[in-house]
Specification:
heterodimer, A: about 200 residues, mainly alpha, 2 strands, B: about 325 residues, 2 domains, two-stranded antiparallel sheet, globular
């Protein structure tokens, strides 16, 4: 696989949200508005890149039997950095994401990439993989948050987009709306993918 | 060699001439008294809601079938979309903005039915899915109840509105409810109370229910256990403290209990198939309704209770299975 493909596979072909269905908990929970979606996505991207880098460079010294706790410790280190930096410089986003920032530790996209990719591949490939997966995750969150914020609140990035007479569908900023939107986005992606395959 | 072939066929071996279309037609006839009652109470607004809901369901069904590349016939003409439309309208207040009715139709047909694979495959009652979707999305519009009998030929937005009896009970207490209407029980029976189109006349709904029972489209288990459990549950509270809790007769006549127990909780697709399962289903619906009404924050819980029990239906059917050739009094009988 070329270096470019390692980077771009996370955007569509192996998109963590829509194709691998990993990291569903933050996906469903923080996508009520686009800003928190981006905040969560970029935090996860930073952790992904850094965790992949460290795991990959230490892959020959990590004992197989204790690899999972070691991965978690590495990931938790970077999550703590994100948590503190965000609290200092992006306090509002930090407040709206709340518990979901520390919970990045157990985000299965990150552990999944450490286990399935970084622990077996060279450092540079792992960085590209982490970056692509992270951006793909961010993209997925933004797509879902766009649907939910517009339908459920009538705004996008906090700006009103639907005009005066619009009555927002409250359901879409509530948990059921997350599942319904995700379901329809998945159906749309699958339908596009099937059409692409059918046409070669 | 004889040329006679042994014909092997999978079950069912016993058939009758029931068809989806025939059952749906029977349900429509059974809904007629309640539909007429709703029009008499709410006038042209009820007609608008009914027509929009039915046409909306038919149109979205056609569009969904088209998108999924399924044949339009016989699905479009089997009557199920019309029944869903009428049941949806029965679950909406008559003053609802027209586009919300259409959103409801879209949700009922697409989200409630077609995403699961169409008629017979949906785990939840489509009309109730739409009702709860609208109720959670537009809490104000869905709880604005035009006063029955007022402004029968009006079309506009300004109509006198009032709380439902259950709403009055929840927010203002029992004393306010009893003093609000001197003829409460008679009005509950005839339908002269605020509420959804189908939450009004208990008599019209019971008439339809009897017709369904007579035509064997529904059986007695679910409606009787549903209504019975609501009666018993609220009755216990009434006996303990009759100054706070309304009496059980009021509880079963008001709100959506009759509509839900007779028409929504008896849907063949989304409810258990065995008798024991049905008894359990009806009991669960009644219990959840009672709990939400008396202990929850919403005044009414019928639609939630039925949806929750819909979710339990596969589990109930899995664990309550009739034994084949069950031993009945020493004689082997076909199940």
């Amino acid at each position: 696989m070329s270096k470019l493909a390692e980077l771009t596979k996370g955007l569509w072909k192996e998109n963590p949200v829509f194709r691998l269905l990993l990291g569903m908990c933050p996906t469903l929970a923080v996508t009520t508005e686009v800003v928190s979606g981006i905040g969560m996505g970029l935090s996860a991207t930073f952790v992904l890149v850094m965790a992949n880098l460290v795991v990959s460079s230490m892959r020959n010294v990590i004992p197989a039997k204790t690899r999972l706790p070691i991965f978690i410790v590495i990931i938790a280190t970077f999550v703590t950095i994100v948590d503190l930096v965000m609290n200092a410089y992006a306090h509002d986003v930090h407040k709206s994401l709340g518990i979901f920032i520390p919970l990045i530790v157990v985000n299965c996209v990150i552990l999944g990439r450490a286990e399935a990719f970084a622990s077996k591949r060279p450092v540079f490939d792992s960085i590209l993989d982490g970056l692509g997966m992270g951006l793909g995750f961010t993209l997925g969150l933004v797509a879902l948050a766009t649907v939910r914020e517009i339908l459920g609140n009538g705004t996008w990035f906090g700006m009103p987009v639907t005009g005066e007479g619009y009555t927002p569908f409250l359901l879409f900023v509530l948990p059921p709306g997350a599942f319904i939107s995700l379901g329809f986005l998945l159906a749309g992606m699958n339908s596009i993918e099937n059409r692409r395959k059918a046409h070669g | 060699m004889s040329s006679t072939k042994l014909i092997l066929q999978s079950s069912p071996h016993l058939r009758d001439d029931d068809s989806v279309r025939r059952i749906m037609l029977t349900v429509l006839i059974a809904l007629a008294p309640a539909t007429v009652a709703s029009v008499l109470m709410f006038g042209t607004r009820a007609v608008v809601v009914l027509v929009l809901a039915v046409l909306g369901c038919l149109a979205f069904e056609a569009i969904a079938l088209k998108i999924m590349k399924k044949p339009l016939m016989p699905y479009l003409t089997d009557g199920s979309a019309v029944v869903t439309g009428i049941l949806l309208a029965m679950n909406l207040p008559s003053g609802l903005p027209w586009w919300m009715v259409l959103v409801g139709a879209l949700v009922a047909v697409v989200l409630g039915k077609q995403v699961y694979g169409g008629i017979g495959s949906n785990p939840f009652n489509p009309a109730l899915v739409a009702r709860v979707f609208l109720f959670i999305s537009f809490p104000t519009a869905m709880t604005t109840w035009p006063v029955p009998g007022s402004d029968l030929f009006g079309m506009g937005a300004d109509v006198a509105t009032a709380a439902t009896p259950l709403g009055v009970l929840k927010t203002d207490g029992l004393a306010a409810l009893m003093s609000s209407d001197s003829n409460l029980y008679m009005n509950l029976l005839t339908g002269h109370v605020g509420g959804c189109l189908g939450e009004t006349s208990a008599i019209a709904l019971i008439l339809g229910g009897l017709f369904l029972l007579l035509r064997k489209v529904i059986s007695w288990e679910i409606p009787v256990t549903f209504i019975g459990t609501v009666f018993a549950f609220t009755g216990v509270f009434y006996l303990v403290d009759s100054s706070t809790y309304a009496d059980p007769l009021f509880q079963i006549l008001s709100g959506g209990v009759m509509l839900g127990a007779i028409f929504m909780a008896t849907d063949m697709v989304t409810t258990p198939v065995t008798r024991k399962g049905m008894l359990l289903f009806g009991f669960g619906c009644g219990l959840i309704t009672g709990v939400i009404r008396l202990l929850g924050s919403y005044p009414e819980g019928v639609s939630f209770s039925i949806l929750i029990m819909n979710g339990f239906t596969p589990l109930i059917d899995r664990y309550i299975t009739p034994a084949p050739f069950e031993d009945k009094g020493g004689e082997l009988q076909a199940p």
